[in-house]
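User: Can you help me understand a structure? I only have the sequence.
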Amino acid sequence: MRHYLEQDVTGYTYWNMALEPGGLSTWGWPQNSLFTVDTAARTFTRNPEYHVIKHYSAAVRPGAVRVGTTGRFSAQGSAYENPDGSLAVVVQNALDREQPFSLTDPTPAARSFTATLAPRSLHTFLVPA
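Assistant: Let's start by predicting it. Here is the structure, written out as tokens:
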């Protein structure tokens, strides 16, 4: 999802909202979905894709503008300035160990914070204006 947003898409459409366990496309390929629905057990599971979309949609508001990032997490994160001036930051720690994370906003707002990212995790930070 980050890749498409970094390319300045104006919309993001997810192909499969819900599939049965082992869901296949009409041409027989295994597919990802936001939810897996087991109709026999009458249960559903939120899949990793659901959580990724939740991270972005919970903090990045309509009309937000992507802002450039630099530093060691630039390839694993992105930042957006919301219309209210808040800053939404979504960042992944793809490593098997905790990683320190810090943000320094070079704009006149001069916002900054530090955090520790758990191994193999995705985080969303909403920094007030």
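Now, to help you interpret it: The domain at 62-129 is CATH 2.60.40.1180 (Immunoglobulin-like). Residues 66 and 80 are 4 Å apart (CA to CA). Let me know which part you'd like to focus on.
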